[in-house]
Amino acid sequence: MSKDPEPTWLERMAARRPPYFWWFLGFIVASCFAFLSWSLCIAIFSAPEIPRNYEILKKVGRLPEHKAYTSQTAPSLPSSPAPVLRNSYLEFSDEELATVNRSLLHSYLTNFRTNTFCSYLVGPYRVTNTRKLTDEDIMNEGFAIQLRSYLQPDEYNKIAPYPVIIEILFPTPYPESYQGYHIGDNIELDVTPYFASLLYVSKVEQEDDDTIVRLTAVSLAQKIRPPHAGPFDLAPPTELNLHAPLPLFSGDIPKAEAPASTAPASAP
Length: 268
Prior knowledge:
Blueprint (H helix, E strand, L loop, with lengths): L8 H7 L3 H28 L4 H9 L19 E2 L1 H8 L4 H16 L10 E2 L1 E10 L9 E10 L8 E12 L14 E4 L1 H4 L1 E9 L7 E8 L3 E2 L7 E2 L35
């Protein structure tokens, strides 16, 4: 007479456990999976500025929607001229600037629910470059202009270039409007109508000159009239390319030349 086969390890363990034990174990495992899933979802939705999270949100059709602002509904942010911005970030390390830039991008993606480092760029600047945006940029529709700060230290000195270079992104379905800005134009940036909100900060070390602080801003305006063309409408982007490098104008530093016309206001 043959012997019955020996029970396996799993069968022996199951025989020693009451039925409700397995139900309870299954409930614990399912709860852990649910907790991990919710935690992962919260981490992804709360940090869209991380490129990996942004790509996941894109795949599931839940990208952040940018608001279209007017002069009445634009975020209430402080305004900062070039000297204030330069002094604020000049001593920051690369790691500290990376933290600032993550916060600035987070604020923009979440329609400024938090705005720790956000501010509007204001002051006298001179246009040094212009171009249309492409698919390789953070926004693929619109144009950008590069400007250098020019200030008059006091009434006894002439206007001189200041070591701050900015670029402003204009998201618009009319990218040819960049032709309304000419190299050499003197622009007095104010909150209205530009609403140029700070988006990115970097620095360029100079061998025989002051360190240059480079700032990237995005216009939150509804409509702008450039100096040499009619007004054009702006529209918030539907999607961003978070893998695109910033600043956009990453080539040579524009030459610091005295503006041809009289300068705008004095430095604060």
